[in-house]
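Researcher: Good morning. I'm working through a list of sequences from a screen, and I'd like to move beyond sequence-only analysis. For each chain I'm collecting a predicted structure so we can compare shapes side by side. This is the next one on the list. No need for commentary yet; just the structure.
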Amino acid sequence: MSRLARSLVRVAGALVPRSERREWREEWLSELAALERHGADGTPGPVSFALGAFAHALTLRRTSWSWTGLGQDLRWARRSLVRAPGFALGAALTLALGIGANATIFALINGLLLRPPPGLTEPERLVQVARSYEQDPRFDNFSWPAFEVIADETAVFASVGASNQAAFVLGTGDDVEQVPGLYVTGSWFGTLGVRPAVGRLLQPADDRAPGAHPVVVLSHALWTRRFGADPRVVGRTVTIGGEPYEIVGVAAQEFAGTEALGAGPQVWLPAMQTPPMGDRLPFDEWGWSSFDVVARLADGVDLEAASAAMPGLAARLRAAAPVNDGILVLLAEGVGLDPEERAEARRLSGILLLVVGLLLLITCTNVANLFLARAGARQAELGVRAALGAGSGRLARQLLVESLVLAGLATVLALPLVLRAGAVLPALFPWTLSVPVGVDARVLVFLAAVGLATGLFFGAMPAWVTSRRSLAGILRDAGPTSGRRTTRIRDALVVAQLGLSLGLVTGAALLGRSVWNARAADPGFRPDGLHAAVLALDRTGRYDETSGLALYTRLLDEAAGLPGVEGVTLANQMPIAGGHSRQTVRPQQDPALAYEAEYTVVAGDYFTTLDIPILRGRALRGIGREPEPVVVVNEALASMFWPGEDPIGKVLAGEPAARVVGLVPDVQMRSLRAPGRPAVYWPIEQRYSPFVALHLRTADGASLTAGDLRALVRRVDPELPAPVVIDLRAAVRDSLAETRTLGLLLATFAGLALLLATIGLYGLVSFQAAQRVREIGIRAALGARPLSLTRLVVRRGLILAGAGALGGLLASWALGHALQSLLYDVDAQDPWTAAAAALVLLVTAVAAAWIPARRAGRVDALVALRS
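Model: Good morning. Structure tokens for this chain:
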């Protein structure tokens, strides 16, 4: 029992605050020994005494950390910071930069990835339904007949809806505008659980028959902008695509569709109003896949159970039509982003969070260094407090409370930046965001958590140093040499700053080189001097295939007469710039071999205008000049269908079959980073498309403005809406928009980090030079030249910079690895880029160390010895 009692007393002694620990432990052990020697009736036994000491220790600990004590520390921290307003404001602004940047990026992640699109009911019960193939994995949409099969899956889904994205021409005459919108099934709004602001939304009764129910639902933004938010808008008629549509309702203000990226829809029309493609409607076409499907899970069914039922649904689709051979049905939880978009958004957001996290780490190390220097300069004050009875733990707590107060001030200063996130981020992010990016409770909690963690991080170092020192040590160091004991720690912090800065500088250099390399990229066509005007005839309601081809002929003739124009053509999609279209193609000799290739219909001198060489065979002729079905294929398709053979004369299966007359190189239709996909080119009269882009190539030095192209369209048909005009050279450049945007942000953050590291190095070298002023005076008195004294101080800065450069190689490697997918024609571990960044760091370090070194070299020996 005595051994147990002594063990309990030792544990109790460890709980006592450090300043009183030794005194209380000795007193308890002596009293316990007296009890063991002279214990009598009525006195506690050894174990009872030890338990009482244990309770007393807890009381002492609770008293030490009482609210009264914390209040005293808070008042002391406030007075301490008020006495040094320059230090407090400078450190707070430095921290606010890092805290605000982190919270702002989190606001983006919150709006894009964590929060569902607003305006939905129970969004956690929604799933996206998509098709894929074992040989060609993807997350793709469905045809209308396939949607009808999915909608019958009532055992898993409570309801199913589908949508098809389109651009609509709204109004007539001079009051014409093109707005984004959706064709949706009557079940779509109900599946999402959207509520109207005015009137009603589309219902299953609106899906009666093709073209039988011309009604429209407006977005709240369009209703406000175009109709002045008039509640009597329901029942009025608006012209869409040249046809009258009755307005039946307005969607809720917070609802901006289900897509987080891209321009939000402004109008919703019944899917049954989808116009025909030539003389064919999509409702019986299994091969026309354009409908995005969303479903609400049935009660009691979770995502895992629903996914388990999808192989059976895929089997029913395969049995329904041969085009579905090998089809898979996939589910993704929620709406807003499909899995591919979500993965890309996670990757970009993660990179941004990593970058701003490094910036915050640099700011914290900078402020921690300032706190260490300040704590060293306040050793006399701390010594007096220690002499008056404050233990080292209490002193450490006071320093930690001061750092938390400063972090709280920095958090408040960062709040305006975070509140502006909704306006700043959409302008900086390389995609168009349709979801709100703003501050909610989750963002505010994150901001407060980052502020708290920051205060603990940069305040922990001086607090830990103080807690490790005895009263004698504090009193001994309360003099002009007080900073020497923390030199190694301050050196390590500066080295960490320099290393992290090198990582950011290297990352910015890699992205900058990628953007520069893209200037000389070969996308498979020549974008210089190439412009396009996008037209959508199917949205006007005035053109069928015959009249559409006649319009295209007039457009080509008029465009060819413009001054400075060297070539004109038409196509249903543009390389890199958009309008992407795919079609399943099969070789006639092996119809089982199929691939969904890039599908381009062209008119005029397409390959000449885009400067795509004909490798074998010939190009497609103009409108009406091909007597039989013919196609041109690219090398990727030829090597897939006819490896090692001449593709000229080969036949693609279909109704009708088409003969290959030409072979062209691969063109990067979607991204500079992705290799060219298999592609097939059709004459436009054999695969009519009401959606086209008029391409024009101008001679070197010729000027062609968007106004010229719009005037051209007005001359051909004054009632056509103004076309969207695209500069293909700019489109190729903008295809690396995410690389350019992140590069700009990273360069900005790298510059700030390098500035902070430079200031930290300058401050450390200046401090150490001041500490060595007597040594420098002795050296000067013994005949040392000013240049040698300058080199003495500069050498110290270079040693720290060299250590930072070595440590920065790891940060450069990690950040380069994270940026790999954003780079173009440059290795993430490129040694020349890393060497250039290290050179920038060393030059900056020399500049930071030169000023205090030059000042040290001019020290007067007599003054230095006297000081």
